[in-house]
Each structure stands twice: as structure tokens, then as C-alpha cells.
Design goal:
5-stranded mixed sheet; mainly beta; 1 helix; Immunoglobulin-like; 130 residues; immunity; globular
Length: 130
Amino acid sequence: MFSFDPIFPPIVFSAEICIGQSVKQTEGTVTVIQHSPLWINCSYELSSAYQPSPFWYIQRPGLPPEAFLSHLGNVRLGRDRGFEAKHEPNLKTFHMQKSTSQLEDSAVYFCAVSHTVSLSSKDANPKRLA
């Protein structure tokens, strides 16, 4: 059983697999104590002819997903908030981490192999945060 400091309540993250791409990431809800490190894994399988350009997306309650991190560094939202992700093409991974989590980091995170312009409700079925 975990005990939590009332001054630093636990932070809840939810991560889902993106439908329509061969992507696997940390599933379900990830609970982290504030100021603790956070890791969410993302791996993918693709044909050798496809050049991956992985992205992380963030979705906050009541809002649509938005681009959060890209392997090219052209999406700054996640980096500006202290998140990092390293693309390892040989391992086919794009794991995301943050050294010190904050309460405002609570959200649903999606990994995709390429930039996804829109996600409809049938394409993404995120769990509600606990």
C-alpha cells in the first residue's frame, strides 16, 4: 500500500494505444507522486519502406488531442514543460520521460508513428482519469 503526502498528492496519467497504427505504449493509468520521475514507453512495428516520424500527443479532459512532442523537435509544447523523448529508430522506440512530474501534467498521452491531423471518437477511446 502506498502512502501519499497530502502536500504532494499523486498525479494520475492515462496512456492509450493509438488505433490504426502498429504502436504499443504503456497501457492504462500510470500513477506518479508529484515531483517524481515519469516514463511512458512507446514502441512500433513498420514495414522497412516506411520512414517513421513519431509524435506524442496530449489530451486534457474536454479538449481534443494536440501535438505534444516530435522526434524532430519542431513541436515545443512538451519540451517547454520539461518532457523529453528520444527516437531510437533501430530499436523502433520513442519513449517519453520527465524528471520531475507536476500536478498539471495529468492528462491522456498518445504515441503515433507519424503526425496525425485529427482523431475522431471512433479512432481514440481514452480512459477517464482516476
